[in-house]
Known about the structure:
Layout: E1 10-14, H1 19-30, E2 34-39, H2 42-48, E3 53-56, H3 64-70, E4 76-79, H4 92-106, E5 113-117, H5 129-144, E6 148-153, E7 155-157, H6 164-172, E8 177-180, E9 186-187, E10 189-191, H7 192-203, E11 211-215, E12 221-222, H8 223-234, E13 241-244, H9 247-261, H10 271-279, H11 286-290, H12 299-304, H13 310-342, H14 344-352, H15 358-378, H16 385-406, H17 421-427, H18 429-434
Parallel strand pairs: 1-2, 1-4, 2-3, 4-5, 5-6, 6-11, 7-10, 8-13
Antiparallel strand pairs: 9-12
Helix pairs in contact: 1-7, 3-4, 4-5, 6-8, 6-13, 9-10, 13-15, 14-15, 15-16, 16-17
Amino acid sequence: MTAPAPTPPRALVLGGYGLIGAAAMRALMAAGFEVTGVGRSETAARRVLPQARWHFADVTTLSTTDWQALCADVDVVVNAAGALQDGGGTDLAAIHTTLPARLSAALVGSDTRLIQISAAGVSEEASTAFFRTKARGDAAIVAAGIDHVILRPTLVIGAAAYGGTALLRAVAALPLIDWRILEDTPVQTIALSDLTAAIVTAAKGDIAAGTIADLTEAEARPFPELIRDLRHWQGLPAPGLSLPLPGFMLSLVGKGADLLGLFGWRSPLRSTALTALSDGITGDPTHWLAAGGRPCRALNDTLSDLPTTVQERWFSRLFLLFPLVIATLSLFWLASGLIGLAQFPAAVEVLTSRGGSAGLATVAVAAGIFLDLALGLMVLWRRGLRPACLGMIAVTLGYLGAGTLVAPDLWADPLGPFVKTLPAAVLALIPLALEDTR
């Protein structure tokens, strides 16, 4: 009689569709774990890992009792949930401190292991709320006295690009000028595959309970050298001109990105990311090696194992063009509306001179101005991007259709008022193609 197959170990991964969480889910599934991802957005989850099992919830609102129910019969919980900065509905204390405290309290008295994905450099005295709240979350786990392993990676490099790693690729792909920034800032990295291998090793119980370790390559390099290495990996030529970027300009960029956060944009250029970079991203692999962990590869070895294709170069070049396209669309539509408002009588006359009634022409021009201004503002809002771009295309086609009926002669106008609207409609297609963040 055949013995029944052993029950596979069960793992729960919080933040399962993030850069680290998604990679951890894949690695654990490949290692034979039965994995359930936890996240808030079903759309993002189904896009990243459609074949996986999911539980959808806002993890910052779950109570200790909720966690007890969710973690019942689970062997390992991997907490890869995290955020960079407060704002736009994000609460760092809730994600980095309250969540681990409630989760670890729920695991007291159980055999479930908690693997906390923290960050190298966390400290109560750190310069950013990101590191301070992470440190408090780590401390809450330790204080709970549960079976835990806390992993603190440095800068994570993988095939997928998200947040800061996407920004680094974009900076490396900038043409013509090499903008020198943070020239004395040391940076260490870890391959995403090395991080997920460490998670699997800890999940299997091969790392002692209570281990707290940085995960990183052994050597650091200055930030400009990191950018040069990425550019070489992308197969791009070195820019012909190298110029320093003044610190105050970098600070202004960060403040501008923080402002965009109020509109729902989570830019990797926000002040927290820039401050963290300025402080340096370094760690000490000693504790990980002493715990029996595998050494992490150096950056050049990490990059040599990653394919660099035309898709990589496209992404890197388009990353910074995306906000430029949005800004251009906003300015175009706002300018159109404001010019129409300033030249209201002349705009009305365009229609009345071709036989339209004064009342109907006035309403049509006023409606057009309102739509132009509304679309120009809406496209700046993250949640308004898609409807705004679709609206721009629809309004442009509406303008051209109605204009052709009322004033077909404008197609032959030497200034091309009809012809010039077509590129604007095509430009609105680009954000629709690039809006995905995961």
